[in-house]
């Protein structure tokens, strides 16, 4: 009995009250249903009353069925409560049947009201654009999808390693790896389907090293005719919350120039070329794209200009975040957007890219491309520990000194306890939403540049 009572209390304390939240579009129709049933009841009562007055005789068992041995007020209240229970139960089961068909991906343990609440309120969430790539971006998206359905992930297409690199070289397609990770993170499909999408073949001639999701996206590209349509259709199949857009559709190569004037071509070759055994042998001076004038994806530019919040990172600074900003249209739209810009600093340095970097060094590298006073907030992990595997040759990213006065520093525990080299998606999303709901924003830049960009897109 104690467990039953506890379950009932939880139901009424949380789920039941959601039916009456503003914007659920439930109360008005429930009230109309009750009014209709009440009118029918009044009509039926007139007919029964008239039957009594005209001397119509009911069978004897109706005396007990209608409870005539009970006082009328109690009898009326009992009938009303029974009717209300039947109405609520029938509406509940009817909606459950409809939802099971229209929203087949709803889990059996999720309540109907939570399904409706999610569908209604996520659509009204803030417009958030994330810019990056790799596992860091996927981790962020996995947490943010619980707060808004207006998510746009802008991903780099410079990956040339692993399965993505092989498919890119052999089939001439854009690398699907980062797109696949984002789709899996934002998917609202059954967990088994998502696991299948991330499954990587371990053996087999020609299949070893490839993930099922990569092959699926490439196959979809052949079916629908283009990489961007393949992303849309794959997102539809997996019920993705939000959209994933490549920063450019051009076949670009990420290159790096080192401090000793060496040039390294290929995203997968940059970090290994910077290391020598246990320590860095050289440092990255700059990164650039070939061709240099790669056009930005128009939908990516539009999403950035319309965003309430633009998030840079987390992810490899030189090979995941910066490659998107090397596309001139993306860089200019980030600067012009009136939305707030936040940078999520990595929790640990990356061997071969950011050895010895602190928070200010990460931020300064981004500001070299974006300019000063564009980024308004920086999120930094404050749960510091040296408990990072030595094999990674990495160290926690620390805050040494002070940041630009116009930049708001936000510190929070955003680290994953299972892997202190990575962020925790739930903690990270909570910290980001605190940044968004803080309305003490810096003044936006003049809108003339935004108008120029919109005109350029429309022309």
Textual characterization of the structure:
This protein is 48% helix and 12% strand. With 459 residues, the protein is α/β, with parallel strands linked by helices. The chain is elongated, with a radius of gyration of 29 Å. Mean pLDDT is 83; it is low at 441-449.
- Oligomer designation: single chain
Shape: elongated
User: Cα distance, first to last residue?
Assistant: 69 Å
Spatially, the strands of the biggest sheet line up as 3-2-1-9-10-11-12
Biggest β-sheet description: 7 strands, parallel
Outline the fold blueprint.
Blueprint: H1 2-18, H2 27-53, H3 62-65, H4 72-102, H5 112-122, E1 128-132, H6 134-144, E2 151-155, H7 162-171, H8 177-186, H9 191-198, H10 212-224, H11 227-237, E3 243-246, E4 253-258, E5 263-265, H12 267-273, E6 275-276, E7 279-280, E8 284-290, H13 298-305, E9 309-312, H14 317-325, H15 328-336, E10 340-344, H16 359-370, E11 377-381, E12 408-412, H17 425-437, H18 448-458
Parallel strand pairs: 1-2, 1-9, 2-3, 9-10, 10-11, 11-12
Antiparallel strand pairs: 4-5, 4-8, 6-7
Helix pairs in contact: 6-8, 6-17, 8-9, 10-11, 13-15, 13-18, 15-18
Give structural attributes.
alpha/beta, 18 helices, 48% helix, Rossmann fold, 12% strand
């Amino acid at each position: 009995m104690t467990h039953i009572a506890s379950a009932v209390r939880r139901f009424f304390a949380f789920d039941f009250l959601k039916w009456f939240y503003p914007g659920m579009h439930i109360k008005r129709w429930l009230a109309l249903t009750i009014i209709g049933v009440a009118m029918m009841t009044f009509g039926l009562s007139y007919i029964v009353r008239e039957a009594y007055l005209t001397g119509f005789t009911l069978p004897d068992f109706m005396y007990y069925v209608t409870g005539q041995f009970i006082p009328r007020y109690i009898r009326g209240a009992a009938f009303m409560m029974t009717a209300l229970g039947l109405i609520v139960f029938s509406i509940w089961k009817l909606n459950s049947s409809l939802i099971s068909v229209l929203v087949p991906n709803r889990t059996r343990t999720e309540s109907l009201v939570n399904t409706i609440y999610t569908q209604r309120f996520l659509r009204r969430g803030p417009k958030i654009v994330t810019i990056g790539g790799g596992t860091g971006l996927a981790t962020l998206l996995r947490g943010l999808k619980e707060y808004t359905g207006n998510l746009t992930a802008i991903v780099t297409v410079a990956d040339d390693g692993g399965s993505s690199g092989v498919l890119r070289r052999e089939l001439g397609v854009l690398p699907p790896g980062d797109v696949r990770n984002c789709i899996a993170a934002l998917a609202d499909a059954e967990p088994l389907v998502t696991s299948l999408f991330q499954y990587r073949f371990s053996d087999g001639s020609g299949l070893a090293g490839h993930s099922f999701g990569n092959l699926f996206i490439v196959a979809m590209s052949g079916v629908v005719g283009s990489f961007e349509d393949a992303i849309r259709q794959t997102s539809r199949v997996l019920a993705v919350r939000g959209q994933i857009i490549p920063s450019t559709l051009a076949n670009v190569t990420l290159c790096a120039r080192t401090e000793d004037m060496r040039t390294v071509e290929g995203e997968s070759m940059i970090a290994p070329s910077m290391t020598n055994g246990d320590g860095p042998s050289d440092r990255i001076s700059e990164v650039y794209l070939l061709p240099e004038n790669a056009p930005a994806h128009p939908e990516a530019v539009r999403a950035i200009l319309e965003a309430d919040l633009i998030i840079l990172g987390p992810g490899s600074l030189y090979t995941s975040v910066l490659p998107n900003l090397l596309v001139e249209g993306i860089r200019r739209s980030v600067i012009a957007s009136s939305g707030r810009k936040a940078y999520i600093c990595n929790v640990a340095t990356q061997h071969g890219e950011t050895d010895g970097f602190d928070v200010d060094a990460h931020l300064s590298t981004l500001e070299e491309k974006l300019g000063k006073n564009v980024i308004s907030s920086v999120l930094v992990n404050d749960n510091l520990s040296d408990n990072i595997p030595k094999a990674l040759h990495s160290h926690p990213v620390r805050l040494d000194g002070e940041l630009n006065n116009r930049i708001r520093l936000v510190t929070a525990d955003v680290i994953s306890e299972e892997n202190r080299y990575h962020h925790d998606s739930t903690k990270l999303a909570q910290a980001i939403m605190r940044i968004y709901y803080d309305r003490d924003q810096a003044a936006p830049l003049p809108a003339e540049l935004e108008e120029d960009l919109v005109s350029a897109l429309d022309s």
